Amino acid sequence: MQRISPKVSLTPAVTLSPTLAADALVNQLRDEGREIYHMGFGQAPFPAPSRLITAVREHAHEKAYLPVAGLPELRTAVAKHQHRLLGTDVDGVDVLVAPGSKLIIYALQMTVAGDLLLPTPSWVSYAPQAAMLGQNVIPVSASLSQNGFSLSANELEQTILRSRKAGQNPTKLLINYPSNPTGLTIPVDCMQEIAQVCIKHNICIIADEIYGRLTFNGGYRSISEFAPDHTVVTTGLSKHLSLGGWRLGVGIIPKAIEGLFDALSGVASETWSCVAAPIQIAAIDAYAGHDDIETFITDSTAIHTAVTQFVAGELRRSGIACFDAQGGFYVWPDFNALAANAKNNQPVTSEDLAKQLITQEGIVVLPGTAFGEAPNQLLLRLSTCDYDGAEALDYYRAHKNEFDISHVSQFAPRVSNATQGFKALVENWQ
Ligand SMILES: Cc1ncc(COP(=O)(O)O)c(C=O)c1O
Description:
The protein has helices spanning 6-9, 18-31, 50-58, 72-86, 101-111, 126-132, 153-165, 188-200, 260-270, 277-286, 291-317, 336-340, 350-361, 389-398, 408-411, 413-427, and strands at residues 37-38, 93-98, 115-120, 137-145, 148-151, 170-176, 204-208, 231-236, 249-254, 330-331, 363-364, 366-367, 380-383. With 430 residues, the protein is of the alpha/beta class.
């Protein structure tokens, strides 16, 4: 019998990440013939853009290993793309290509020595990755409002000072905006303040911008604008191009952090080696600024805007507190006030709440505990992608001029039905 390392076996989420576990549950219940609304898994719903399918097809015969950091043409295309959108200095960064940004985040956690400053709530995989590496997580409190996901610069600074005094070694801050799970983004003035604190205390910022291009109202901004020498941006094709399964992520690494790019390339060479050649070649097109790709991104963003607004609005009509998302495809409803005033059947933990939803209404969601919240915080993450993305895009393009949230039930009836399930559930508490 081999022993499983406690770094893996003792980390609850490491056995099967909660998002993948939710997906497996949905498949099982559907196989049993139950009508299930899937709000558990963060899978972008649209079909792969045709230009990129053609590129993969035309290069399917290319089978050689590629340079570990990625194809030079792709790395240049990524740097230029960031420059076009954000004004990032092309010569000040190195780009690393990997099979998904998740692996780059893991490699960064491995490579930047020290403890991780992590806001709550945060994406499911950050803390388990730290645990697998035997590293400490120092929680940082965040406040949520319709203005966004904010970290108080003062509190962040106090947390850094306090933890240093206690013998910890905070060296990196991992932030994600627009955020999974909240759908909120970090306001620009808050980014500026966080950047100042991180520069002052020499903290490396890992900015997970995988949803950056799905910021609503066209407003993709990056903390790298304010702390270019301290910020590593991670992003990729998974969300704004609906290409999660193609596994292409990128890290944009400031040359100012001496040795970081070389160290990450070393990790890459000893682990994943490279991303498949046809995918890298297609990705050059994904970053080149072609009109059809940009239209695909704008159209999908308009659909995500409408669907998330529709869901948040319907939940509020049922008395559930929920901010409108500012990007991506999640909302983060808060049932605490409603449950506190309920008379019957109210859940005690977010996991109870998630269980009620699946058993009574056939709705799969993720509980707040998966994102680092205390069990008694009645928070859920809802993914708003349970619709046919090809139909949704056709519908949107045919109705572009008059498109608004009143159209959502036409192309996303399952999402619309699910909101009625929430209404029925909380009526049951009265
Ligand atoms: C916040 C966040 N970061 C990173 C990732 C990983 O994306 P990738 O497909 O690039 O590994 C995801 C995907 O679910 C995510 O939601």
